[in-house]
Design brief:
about 80 residues; alpha+beta; four-stranded antiparallel sheet; 2 helices; about 20% helix
């Protein structure tokens, strides 16, 4: 069973989660399509997820979350 945190939920009900497999520590994204679409949840490797169109709101949510991990003064 993976641990997960919701990244983004679209107006149509699709949801994206950042997940981690506790035993291995491997992180990935889970996409859960909305119920009416009939799609199945999918796991997406982080690198693959971020190589896609990173302008989507689900990608921006992950990038914002990653940004919160940086502590200290701004670079520059």
């Amino acid at each position: 069973m993976s641990e997960r945190r919701e990244l983004y939920r679209s107006p149509n009900g699709d949801a994206w989660f950042l997940a981690r497999e506790p035993a291995s520590g491997k992180a990935f994204v889970i996409h859960e399509p909305n119920a009416p679409s009939g799609g199945r949840p999918s796991q997406i490797e982080l690198g693959e997820f971020l190589r896609g169109d990173v302008k989507g709101p689900e990608h921006q949510a992950l990038l914002r979350l990653i940004g919160t991990l940086v502590d200290g003064p701004a670079y520059g």
